[in-house]
Amino acid sequence: MKAAIVVEAGRHPVYGDFRDPTPAPGKRIVRVTASAISHLTKGRAGGAHYSADAKPPFVPGVDGVGVTDDGQRVYFAMPEAPFGGMAERCLVDERRCFAIPDDLDDVVAAAMANAAMSSWAALVERAQLRAGETVLVNGATGSSGRLAIQIAKHLGAAKVIATGRRTETFDDLRRLGADATIALGGDRDALEAAFMREFAQRIDVVLDYVWGASAETALIAAAKAGPDGVPIRFVQIGSIGGTNVSLPGAVLRSSALQLMGSGIGSVPLPKLLGSIRAALAVAPSAGFEIATRALPLGEVANAWAAPDGDARIVLIP
Q1: How far is CA 16 from CA 11, 19, 87, 93, 267, in A?
Q2: In 10 A of CB 208, how many CB atoms?
Q3: Residue 185: strand, helix, or coil
Q4: pLDDT in tens, 241-296
Q5: Residues with Cβ < 8 Å from 171, sequence gap 6 or more?
Q6: Listed residue (162, 5, 160, 170) closest to 87, CA to CA
Q7: I need a labelling partner for 278 at 20 to 30 A (CA). Which of 7, 70, 105, 253 fits?
């Protein structure tokens, strides 16, 4: 079969021939119709993500949409190695695939699944968001952050604050549901002051897709300006802004900050899949939006190297 193939650790996948998966007890052959290039897929394929464990050669792709051998249209996740989602076919544990709404396009579903899971699981499983609370999305200009705004509002957040470097997107973030915006970058004191103004008005949950300097500034601002004794659930999701922060111990002693992460390991896989199932089930009626760019699987090398933009790239076998 044709597939994207990682032939060497750290190298971009190449398009070529890969052996076909064979049926096995409890596993299903899925004919793939769409598979997205997500940060998780890139991280695992390159060995940079903490959950990466595949050895070359293998097919990348943590999830996708396709049709099972009995004709059911499904979303699937975590195919059996070495068969990833970026191929004509893959092998999937039957517990890791489920039917998706008929009115949800294959490309949209593939693009939305992992991005939506990141905020749905963080808000429901980790932060346990309650209706009427305020959510800050740190790093809201990418696909996952934009969905996080929409999902937070859908789950009952009364106010959503969005941050990002690309201020030209802020009008669109407000259209998606953001009630306030904060520009990242520039003067750190100004950024801390902007965070403090919002924390003083009370922020209950922070979804952090950035980490690094902006997260560090937000944590310090929360400790300085957050109401005494009022918990602030800070959920770490992504690290596009840096892998480490330098945090004074007084930040934790002087506040009710609750630091936690959300991802593979902190949330059991069945609950991560449950988050995807729940998000995709309501996506059509809730009007969730995600920009997509569909490309043939044969263009995987160029697609993989393309810079992150507003649209999530989805490969079509």
Answers
A1: 15, 10, 10, 25, 35
A2: 27
A3: coil
A4: 999 999 999 999 999 999 999 999 999 999 999 999 999 999 999 999 999 999 99
A5: none
A6: 5
A7: 70
- Across the chain, how many H-helices and E-strands are there? 9, 15
Q: Is the pTM of this model over 0.90?
A: yes
With a CB cutoff of 8 Å and minimum separation 6, the contacts of 271 are 121, 125
Amino acid at 125: E
List of residues 6+ apart from 9 with CB closer than 8 A: 46, 47, 56
Residue 48's pLDDT is 55
CB 121, CB 146: distance < 8 Å = no
The CA-atom distances, in angstroms, between 143 and each of 47, 68, 204, 257 are 22, 28, 23, 27
Report d(CA 77, CA 114) in Å as an integer.
9
Tokens encoding 230: 């009022």
**pLDDT tens sequence across 102-128:** 999 999 999 999 999 999 999 999 999
Question: In the block, which residue shows the tokens 């099972």?
Answer: 68
Q: Which residues pair with 233 in a beta bridge?
A: 205, 258
